[in-house]
Amino acid sequence: xxxxxxxxxxxxxxxxxxxxxxxxxxxxxxxxxxxxxxxxxxxxxxxxxxxxxxxxxxxxxxxxxxxxxxxxxxxxxxxxxxxxxxxxxxxxxxxxxxxxxxxxxxxxxxxxxxxxxxxxxxxxxxxxxxxxxxxxxxxxxxxxxxxxxxxxxxxxxxxxxxxxxxxxxxxxxxxxxxxxxxxxxxxxxxxxxxxxxxxxxxxxxxxxxxxxxxxxxxxxxxxxxxxxxxxxxxxxxxxxxxxxxxxxxxxxxxxxxxxxxxxxxxxxxxxxxxxxxxxxxxxxxxxxxxxxxxxxxxxxxxxxxxxxxxxxxxxxxxxxxxxxxxxxxxxxxxxxxxxxxxxxxxxxxxxxxxxxxxxxxxxxxxxxxxxxxxxxxxxxxxxxxxxxxxxxxxxxxxxxxxxxxxxxxxxxxxxxxxxxxxxxxxxxxxxxxxxxxxxxxxxxxxxxxxxxxxxxxxxxxxxxxxxxxxxxxxxxxx
Length: 478
Description:
Blueprint: H1 20-30, H2 32-42, H3 48-55, H4 59-87, H5 89-109, H6 113-141, H7 147-176, H8 189-195, H9 198-208, H10 215-220, H11 224-235, H12 237-250, H13 273-287, H14 290-303, H15 308-336, H16 338-361, E1 364-366, E2 369-371, H17 374-393, H18 395-405, H19 412-440, H20 443-464
Antiparallel strand pairs: 1-2
Helix pairs in contact: 1-6, 2-6, 2-7, 2-9, 4-5, 4-6, 4-19, 5-6, 5-8, 5-9, 6-7, 6-18, 6-19, 7-8, 7-15, 7-18, 11-12, 13-18, 13-19, 13-20, 14-15, 15-16, 15-17, 16-17, 16-18, 16-20, 17-18, 19-20
């Protein structure tokens, strides 16, 4: 990839000649990982009926088949954070791309629930790895003044992947006559929904061959020559040399290789506060229940009276609104900062989730099925889409931006490993428990818990989160 240099970006040293074309190209490639994250997560939405009929699943079994990917995600996020410090950011992303391909083929061909769960677990390892490494890679190759905007593209790609999965699932189901109807080569449409993932996964793997390794990783491994070459291409010769020196100085005084032990403050012997902040951000992003909308959206809307066709259309609408909200985040994140957006999102989600809980509390059984009256049904639909907007204006992109930039260089890989593991573990707990909770406690009580979590997250942000807008990665402390 070659490109011409552009003038210095506002907020960067005058000597820096930022190669924006090159930066844009490598960010575009890295964020395909976000697309795969979204697609692999969202493809399950609309296939549950096929899975239940094919594998004779109970509600708990459905929850486990849907949530199996999340166990893999937790493992993948933890391993990727550590492996990224050992073999590099780009190399681990390539491994993730290969796992996406294996998972897509395996889930579509699964002849039993066990085989399906194993294939989804493999895909989850790829999703977990991509979820933590794409944003950290972007943060390590972009100027501080626009880092938030470029890192936020990751969330747009996640939502684009989710929406792409929703659109593909809708088109396949509509063409075949239903998700369980026979389609190409005699296989049901729901299997093709999984096989379609091979296309973007192959593109991700191929394009990763075209981008360089992270210069922060290269300096940490003592490969300052290649790091200087990358930074020179990104920012110019003088700025490249200055950044190599800054990165070197920001590492631990004894220049040892990063380890998990770095997460413990040597002075106090306790886990660093910044690590707890990262874990809190990761967990609260899931406790507000966003992935219930992504994973169970079709089932949820059908359970309160919408047809399968209408439910899939609502998914597409939610995905489109999410992308628009992320575009607003890109416009605001480097202007007003990360913390204000998180506070706005927490407040907005608390209110909209409370409205959804109220609407579901009015549902009645009609002919053996749950049904919402016109008024509460409309209120639930509007609140659900406003909730999606608030999430994707704030916690959706901002959490990943902050995890990619908030940790000091020495602990970035380890911090991401722990926070990513916490994020996906919470995701698994929320997603797997939803069918059972909705059946036993009801949708109203379940959504009340999500609303309460959103409210608590507001106070967490006020107390624990420090603004990172405009700060160089080498200046991060904690």
